[in-house]
Amino acid sequence: MLKMNSITFFAVALLLFFLAMSVGAFSAEPAAKPWQGGSGTNSITKSHNGCIVNENFRSPTLNGISLSIYDQKSGQWHQTWMDNQGGYYDFFGLQDGDNYIFQTTLNKASPQKHQRMIFTKIKEDSFVWLWQKTDDNGESWQELWKINYVRQK
């Protein structure tokens, strides 16, 4: 059985709390920066005894799904995203303060180039999702999309 120290347990507990709060249906609306999808909906559920978080995203131009799971051995979250445009992303995620960051390296031949999504400004019925990229191994990040998520009533 894996033993977790109190810091690891606290980080896992916070992330599980966030994921529990995010289960449900959300409206996704662009914020300050334009998003080519316009607007959409996101349905988030859990399966497999609550161990897997399932995401089903729908918009006029982008439809996708993701599966997320927490790996107790590495202390990281892993998410796989697939969409109707042939997109496939394999993310690893960590908690950074009040933010949850999932990052990927798109091309192993260019390990300094990464993309990430950040879940921030998390409240009971809303959060902000940022999509960013870097070409300099994280020295600077460029915001590509900013989407406000609001729980549907």
**Biggest β-sheet, characterized?**
10 strands, antiparallel, barrel
- Approximate helicity band: 10-25%
Unreliable segments of 5+ consecutive residues: 1-17
Question: Mean pLDDT, as a whole number?
Answer: 78
How many DSSP-defined strands?
A: 10
Q: Record the strand order, biggest sheet.
A: 1-2-3-4-5-6-7-8-9-10
What amount of the residues lies in strands?
over 45%
Query: End-to-end span in angstroms?
Result: 40 Å
DSSP summary: helix tally: 1
Task: Give a structural overview.
- Helices cover 11% and strands 55% of the residues.
- With 153 residues, the chain is mainly beta.
- β4 and β5 form a beta hairpin.
- The longest helix has 17 residues, at 6-22.
- It is globular, with a radius of gyration of 15 Å.
Give me a quick take on this structure.
This protein has 153 residues and is mainly beta. It has one helix spanning 6-22, and strands at 24-30, 40-47, 52-58, 63-71, 76-83, 88-96, 99-105, 114-123, 126-134, 142-151. The radius of gyration is 15 Å and the shape is globular.
Secondary-structure topology with pairs:
Layout: H1 6-22, E1 24-30, E2 40-47, E3 52-58, E4 63-71, E5 76-83, E6 88-96, E7 99-105, E8 114-123, E9 126-134, E10 142-151
Antiparallel strand pairs: 1-2, 1-10, 2-3, 3-4, 4-5, 5-6, 6-7, 7-8, 8-9, 9-10
What brief labels describe this structure?
mainly beta; 10 strands; single chain; 153 residues
